[in-house]
Amino acid sequence: MRAGVLAVVAAGGALGSAARYGLAEAWPGPAGGFPWATLVTNLIGCALLGVLMQIVTTRPGIHPLVRPFLGTGLLGGFTTFSTYAVETRDLVAGGHLAPAAGYVLGTLVGALLAVRLGMWAAGRWRR
């Protein structure tokens, strides 16, 4: 089973990373500008993770490879803490302290709310 888990995490991660790259290419931000693409990517990923967790923890019979493929692989590859950290550092280094603070707080609060919203939406959909 370990080889199967590794394979689905790798496949999901490749797909999620490619989707994130595609979104960043489709929505480039100006140098020193607010990193909207990363913020939106992370919020979408968090909402989808909330949906996934609501489904896999409340619905019996989910294949054991669904969670590692979608959660760790696809959504783990789609969301990005490293880019978030680098973009925050770049904003601070460029003297854009207010946007940097907004980005940090917006990501943290937004991510928590997005997970909760995803869980709520999945719960309502199941009813």
UniProtKB/TrEMBL annotation:
Origin: domain of life: Bacteria
Role according to the record: Fluoride-specific ion channel. Important for reducing fluoride concentration in the cell, thus reducing its toxicity.
Keyword Nuclease carried by entry: no
Signal peptide region: none
UniProt-listed InterPro entries: FluC
Localization: Cell membrane
Enzymatic reactions: fluoride(in) = fluoride(out)
Similarity remark: Belongs to the fluoride channel Fluc/FEX (TC 1.A.43) family.
KW Transferase (keyword) present: no
GO molecular function: fluoride channel activity; metal ion binding
Any one Gene Ontology cellular component term annotated for this protein: plasma membrane
UniProt-listed NCBIfam families: crcB
Membrane topology of the entry: Multi-pass membrane protein
Keyword annotations of the record: Cell membrane, Ion channel, Ion transport, Membrane, Metal-binding, Sodium, Transmembrane, Transmembrane helix, Transport
Residues passing through the membrane, by range: 34-53, 65-85, 97-119
A single BP term in Gene Ontology: cellular detoxification of fluoride
Protein name: Fluoride-specific ion channel FluC
Description of how activity is regulated: Na(+) is not transported, but it plays an essential structural role and its presence is essential for fluoride channel function.
Residues annotated as binding Na(+): G76, T79
Coiled coil regions, renumbered to chain: none
